[in-house]
């Protein structure tokens, strides 16, 4: 036993346990970050949203957090990755 980081707990095939209302709510949240409708978010997108609500986070910490969410390690968080994290968080 022992502690496992979120990235070890989640995989591309992790089951998402969200109802339709939750899916709609999390998609809306995702699109607040993905203002250009590219289908992914980056650290820059997250920083802009956080700064708009007067929240400041260390850039290295933000990169570490998003790296855990970025399951395919392409430097971007796609909607399906965002939904998996949200689904795992609601279990």
From TrEMBL:
Alphabetical list of PANTHER family matching this protein: CALCIUM-BINDING PROTEIN 8-RELATED (PTHR46311), EF-HAND DOMAIN-CONTAINING PROTEIN (PTHR46311:SF5)
Designated name of the protein: Glycerol-3-phosphate dehydrogenase, mitochondrial
Gene3D superfamilies according to UniProt: EF-hand
Cited Pfam families: EF-hand_7 (PF13499)
CDD domains: EFh
UniProtKB keywords: Calcium, Metal-binding, Repeat
Taxonomic path: Eukaryota, Metazoa, Chordata, Craniata, Vertebrata
Cellular component per GO, a single term: trans-Golgi network membrane
Residues annotated as domain EF-hand: 21-56
Molecular-function annotations in GO: calcium ion binding
């Amino acid at each position: 036993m022992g502690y496992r980081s979120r990235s070890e707990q989640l995989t591309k095939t992790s089951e998402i346990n969200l109802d339709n209302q939750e899916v709609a709510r999390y998609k809306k949240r995702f699109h607040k970050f993905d203002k250009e409708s590219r289908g992914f978010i980056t650290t820059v997108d997250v920083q802009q949203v956080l700064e708009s609500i007067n929240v400041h986070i260390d850039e290295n910490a933000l990169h570490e957090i998003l790296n855990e969410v970025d399951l395919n390690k392409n430097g971007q968080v796609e909607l399906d990755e965002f939904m998996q994290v949200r689904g795992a968080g609601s279990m």
